[in-house]
Amino acid sequence: MVRKQLMIKYVLFLFNKESNFATHILEFLKLKFYFLLVILLSFLSCKKDTGDAEMLTKATDSITAHIDSSKNKKIDFLERKENLQEAYNLINKIKKDSLKKPHYLDLVYAYYQLPDTSRFLELNNQVLELAKTTNDSVVIAKCYWRLGNFYSDIQNKNDSAFYYYNKGQEIYWLIGNKFDAARLLINMAIIQKNIKDYTGSEITTTKAIAMLKPLKGYGELYSSYNNLGIVFNELGEYDRAIYYHRKALEYIEKSGLTNRVPGSLNNIGVVYVNQKKYSNAIQNFEQGLEQDSLFVSDTELYAMLLDNLAYARFKSKDTTAELPSIFYKALSIRDSLQNHYGVTTSKLHLAEYFLNKNDTIKGIEYAREVQELSRQSNNFKDLLSSLLILSTADKDNALTYTNEYIKINDSLQKEERAIRNKFARIQFETDEYISKANRLNQQISQTSFISAGIILVIILLYIISNQRAKNKLIKQKQTANQEIYNLVIDQQKKFEEGRDIEKQYISRELHDGILGKLFGIRLNLDSLNEEDDSQSKKERFKYIREIQKISDQIRLLSHRLNKTSLSNVNFETVLEELIKSQNAGTIKFHIEFKESINWDTIDNNIKINIYRVLQEAISNIHKHSKATEARIEFENLNDQLIIGITDNGIGFSPEKTKNGIGLGNMFARVKKIKGKITISSLGENRKGTTIKLTVPFN
């Protein structure tokens, strides 16, 4: 639009006599070229934005496809790695960092699953730094979470894992994500349990449970109660351990995670073994093994249940048990899975079994295998167990094994104590940080409450002031309406006074005139009653004629009385008086009541507003219509009052004058009494305008 206006202005300027025509033609062409160039660039920009969106969609699809391919274990490892590198290259082509981050997170997790630990760490740290520059708390917390998983599951560094889990849960807590904060607390509690910080693990798990219960995180509550069961089993509080494992089973049912049932049954069986309630233990292990397709769905757990079942039968001195074949079966499965911890556990059980059977050679052989495997995998728990067995079974080297046991046990205790202290410091610093954050939040809350209070007071003062003004206006309107109604009542009183005067006149006419004449005629007729001559007949005829005149006089009085004795004198009379008062000018006004209307049943407020609307309509007819005649009709139709106001004037266009004060007041008054108003006119310089009001009686 602006371009068009400029061009028109410039063309007009070209034809100015004082201008250089050729120069301005050239300038005009330049101007037109400039606008065409602007339009072309805008078009190209829009096209470029559309193209960018399409490219981004294609890139996202390609990135997802490459990451999905990397998870296919049937593909060669190097090919899977190449897929992730290709995804990384595509992500780097995206210009906006905010669009890169979600893809980076997926890529980091894919490297973790591959696994490619060095690339995982490199890329995770890259995403972490990017998130820190943009202050993206959610992404920062996720990066810390994955670092915690890395150090816990792959590096077996409990202190580093605990540190990163703690940093992640701290951020989640501060941003109000209690669910993920609780999940990280569970991970921290499991690490505390693993380093034998059972009290710390119980406290951390209890915190997680308190956060999860309102959120109905049933799967996470299962993990929490399962951890508490293991903690109290290690503490030797077996009844409490059973209680918490049973609670864990309840939450498995609520969450629908039935695949976790065998694991819980195994844990309960282990507690019963420690209680030497071997029949209960065997029952739970067998129940766990009976779960559908367990060997296929979780082979490692199947081997664990099988080994624990064999051990429980061995401890219960079950002579019918197929031992040691069950031990061998469990060991074979674990060995095929390269489950080093499982293999050492199976061999420890076999060592104990053969020593119990007085097969010392096999018992020592399995114990030494456990010793060697435990050293290689840093499995100090099973290493200590193997040394303890060897110190009693191998009499020749008992002292050597005992000294090594003491040395390793002391070293582990010192290390665990150091780690526990480190964890305590981390949690103390976190608690202190959270405490400061809470104090700051309290201060912010107090300031907010005070500010809100001040704002509320200001709003209340404004509302009170505004309400007072409204009340004042309402009171003024009520006063005005009352004055109008008083005026109507005064007019009604004047009518009543006129009617009384008329009644007095008719009364005097009847009493003094008609009754007197009738009395005289009656006396004369009585005197002529006995006479029958022609003269008497003439006299009687004359008196009959007088009676006829009196009858005509009574009829005239009756008509006058009927005219003044209206059944609906109140408001109807006021309206008639209003219309009658308008007939002094050049316009002849007519009023007609098509049906009887009981004005006494109509609310005074409705009558007042009708009166005002009629006044405004009549005023507009006088001012603008140039009419010679106007008609106002009242009709009672289906419990609605229909009022029609028609004139034969020049008419007008309602659309052009709808914002006028007079018409606006009419519409407002009709709306106030829940009525409707329509205005139809043939238009300016044409004859006729009709206003129709529809007002409900109630």
Structure, described:
With 698 residues, this protein is mostly helical. Among the domains are: 2-55, no CATH class; 457-564; 570-696, Histidine kinase-like ATPase, C-terminal domain (Heat Shock Protein 90, 2-Layer Sandwich). Helices cover 77% and strands 5% of the residues. It contains 25 helices and five strands. The protein has a five-stranded mixed sheet with strand order 1-2-3-5-4, with helices on one face. It starts with a helix and ends with a strand. Residues 1-26 and 564-569 have low confidence and may be disordered.
Highest CATH level, the class of the domain at 570-696: Alpha Beta
Strand order of the largest sheet: 1-2-3-5-4
> Helical amount among residues, as a percent range?
over 70%
Q: Report the count of strand segments.
A: 5
Please give the radius of gyration in angstroms: 53 Å
List segments where confidence is low: pLDDT < 50 over at least 5 consecutive residues: 1-26, 564-569
Written as H for each helix and E for each strand, in order along the chain, the element string is HHHHHHHHHHHHHHHHHHHHHHEHEEHHEE
Instruction: Give the distance, in angstroms, between the N- and C-terminal Cα atoms.
Output: 55 Å
Q: What percent strand?
A: 5-15%
Mean pLDDT: 80
* SSE class: mainly alpha
What characteristics describe this protein?
single chain, 698 residues, mainly alpha, Heat Shock Protein 90, 5-stranded mixed β-sheet, 25 helices, elongated, disordered N terminus
How are the SSEs ordered, and which strands pair?
Elements: H1 2-14, H2 21-70, H3 77-92, H4 97-113, H5 117-133, H6 137-154, H7 158-174, H8 178-194, H9 198-212, H10 218-234, H11 238-255, H12 261-274, H13 278-289, H14 294-297, H15 299-315, H16 325-336, H17 340-356, H18 360-377, H19 380-393, H20 398-528, H21 534-564, H22 570-580, E1 588-593, H23 604-625, E2 629-637, E3 640-647, H24 654-657, H25 661-672, E4 676-681, E5 689-696
Parallel strand pairs: 1-2
Antiparallel strand pairs: 2-3, 3-5, 4-5
